[in-house]
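step 3/5: co-fold with tetrahydrodeoxyuridine
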Amino acid sequence: MKKIVISADITECSKAELEEDDRRLVQSAEDFFDHAYAPYSKFKVSAAALLDNGFIINGTNQENAASPSGTCAERTTVFYANSMYPANKVTTLAISAWYDGQIVKNPITPCGSCRQVLLETERRYGSPIRIILAGRDKCLIVNSVSDILPLNFDSSFFD
Ligand code: THU
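step 4/5: write tokens
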């Protein structure tokens, strides 16, 4: 019997400490809170994806009265990016949320379904996606989706 320890490489920093491109991407996410459709939770989530051609794609959560039919900001964004620009990989994804009149204090982390979708996107394009989880001031940066989805399931199990 042996014990396996899984660790993740996560950087914590303030918004002021972000590199210029990262700060711009977070700002871009924050510019789109009002595009969220969140009449039920009132929790507005916005993501901004930087593509390898320099384009920024924005997406927000889109809710539905039949709640499982809505979708999170992260999936809206990567599906939109991959639909519009299938030849261009997402290199960085910034995620931020707004609740009760302000940006949420702690960096918001993607739900399990979004992590699974982000993982497949990363593997599909053969290149890691950096993720910037932005709170009101504190940010967490991970260099690959694998870091936030250990012991993951992917198509390699079909082999
Ligand atoms: N939500 C996201 O869009 N992304 C996340 O990472 C977590 C949750 C959305 C789903 C729902 O519309 C609302 O936030 C409350 O859960």
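step 5/5: annotate
The chain has a mean pLDDT of 97.
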